[in-house]
Design brief:
Layout lengths: L9 H12 L12 H14 L9 H7 L10 H11 L3 H10 L14 E3 L1 H12 L1 H10 L16 H12 L1 H6 L1 E3 L4 E2 L11 H10 L1 H14 L1 E4 L2 E4 H7 L2 H9 L8 H16 L6
Antiparallel strand pairs: 1-2, 2-3, 4-5
Helix pairs in contact: 4-5, 4-11, 5-14, 6-7, 10-11, 12-13
Length: 278
């Protein structure tokens, strides 16, 4: 459960007690308002976490004194904004939308989403269409011409394990990985030596997951309305239709991606909207 502006109840009161105990003053009233958000951001900045004013698993761990070294730091976003020459707010919003602001499951594995239709594509490419069809008949939830079949969180690893029994590399390429949900199939274009190298870096840290996102933005191109376009150019120009199409696909509106992005943007804009890229 994520505690944020507007949250109520005993968990908020417990948070406020913890913040005050650590020297970050806020009213202990069980209501998450501006004073509590300010205290949370101050704490996040002190420990180096992403300072978004929300209290999820990473901030809870930090409040308890646990190790948070694998997680993104506030400076990571600042450095990324300079690298792409875009406002920090843009990258922070992507980080909040993808993976719900966290790149790892509770058990320490990177978040993934397994795409059965990409598994079909890669099996067809490697072994031929007949073989891909045979596997689709045997395990339609693992190999299919259609999207879907998602179960979420650790359940996606169960699907991945089944796919790995068919073909390891095809399976790893058929997942999106980490906080920014970059598809494994992009590993060559992003400069990784192998799909295994890409996957290992997703396990290492959220900073490396962010690096995969930055590589993707820097290299992704496409054709929209019969014109060649680059994701980095579109991002710098804040041409959101092109950005969302290249990042999330042509059906991004039907999938509600624009609405999700706008919701996170609206939350973060008052905090980071005035920060310029150096």
């Amino acid at each position: 459960m994520i505690l944020k502006y507007g949250s109520l109840g005993l968990e908020v009161l417990s948070l406020q007690k913890s913040l005050n105990r650590l020297g970050f003053s806020c009213p202990m009233v069980g209501e998450f308002k501006a004073e509590t958000e300010k205290a949370v951001i101050a704490f996040q900045l002190k420990v180096g976490l992403v300072a978004d004013g929300k209290v999820g698993d990473k901030t809870r761990l930090a409040l308890s004194g646990a190790d948070t070294s694998k997680y993104l730091k506030d400076q990571d976003y600042k450095d990324a904004a300079k690298r792409l020459n875009v406002p920090e707010l843009i990258i922070r919003t992507f980080g909040a939308v993808e993976g719900l602001g966290c790149g790892f499951l509770d058990d320490g594995r990177p978040k993934i989403l397994y795409e059965r239709h990409r598994m079909y594509f890669y099996l067809k490419q490697k072994y031929g269409e007949d073989y891909a069809k045979q596997q689709a008949v045997k395990t339609p939830n693992i190999v299919n011409t259609l999207t879907g079949g998602y179960v979420g969180n650790s359940g996606e690893y169960a699907r991945l394990e089944q796919a790995k029994q068919i073909d390891l590399e095809c399976a790893l390429q058929s997942c999106s990985w980490g906080q920014f949900q970059i598809m494994g199939e992009n590993f060559k274009a992003l400069g990784y030596s192998s799909i295994q190298d890409f996957v290992q870096q997703q396990y290492d840290s959220e900073s490396k997951q962010l690096d995969a996102f930055l590589r993707f933005v820097e290299t992704k191109t496409g054709i929209i309305n019969a014109k060649p376009v680059k994701l980095l150019d579109a991002l710098q120009a804040e041409n959101w239709d092109v950005v969302f199409t290249l990042y999330n696909g042509a059906n991004y509106k039907k999938l509600g991606y624009q609405a999700k992005f706008q919701k996170q943007w609206d939350h973060l804009q008052p905090i980071y909207g005035e920060e310029a890229v150096a």
